[in-house]
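Show me a record, fold above all:
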Amino acid sequence: MRWTTFLALLMMVAGFWAGYGLEPALAASSDGDVPTAAQSGQVTLPDTWRAIRQGEPGFIAGQPQDRGVLIQSEGETWRAARNGKLTWYAGLALVGVSLAIGAFYLIRGKIMIEGGPSGRMILRFNRIERIGHWLTAGSFLVLGVTGLNIMFGRWLLEPIIGKTLFSWLTWAGKWLHNLSGFVFIAGLVVIFALWAKDNLWDRYDWGWIMHGGGLLKMGDHPPAAKFNFGQKTQFWMVIVVGSLVASTGVSLLFPFTFAQLHGMQVMQLIHAGLAVVMVLFILGHIYIGTVGMEGASTAVTTGYVDLEWAREHHSVWVEEVEGKQTKPAE
């Protein structure tokens, strides 16, 4: 393996030697003297390596000139930023938000249906809406787990499971990450088409903000339509930031199609940074939709929610549909 790598390196150097206009050593002249580089117009070997180290492109047959760069110094800057500040601040943010959610749960506790479940159910999301939600949410979970492994796995997971298993998991995760990205894009299109009109600002949003969404104390239930201001913020974050993450991800899947090497390095930093922002938002969303609030999870599983829950959290919406989409509790 080492000899193969060594031979490949020799071939690359030889190719770049030719790309920089170098020729084999000149034959001795008739009087036995070898002409100097200045006399022959050649570039010396130190000049060649200096040019390579400074990022000057050589020649690769059938490829754009920018791809003939053997050593790209900006790559060191990118790697330092990616493995340094980006990873460090992302880790702090993830730990901080997780601790904040845990503290909120300990202080506020689970948000219960104050009057207790009514036993009557109202349809909140139909089948198409639930499919759109899970296309987006399911693919994002895969993207989030595999992406966090790419960012933190070498330091957190590899020491526990070993290099061999970690390399296989990361290899498989890379393929899952790439494929799930296209499912996520499809989900974005579906939920935008279904819910964009319901996530525009309305007259109830300011009241919801002033009351902290009714999350801070019991008995405080500001009126809201189908989606409250918090859900609207979450929706537009997913659409806008998700679109940026998806577009930068696609550009990385097809190298040199949308940008050259330096541009791809910038896109990778944007992709990773914005993906972490999405994860931070989604952590709160998952909390409220599961252990944080009684009766919320059924909206995206069966599609139905308890009528009392709907009246407490989306009273304006209930007024619009009450009596039209109800059924006895099962």
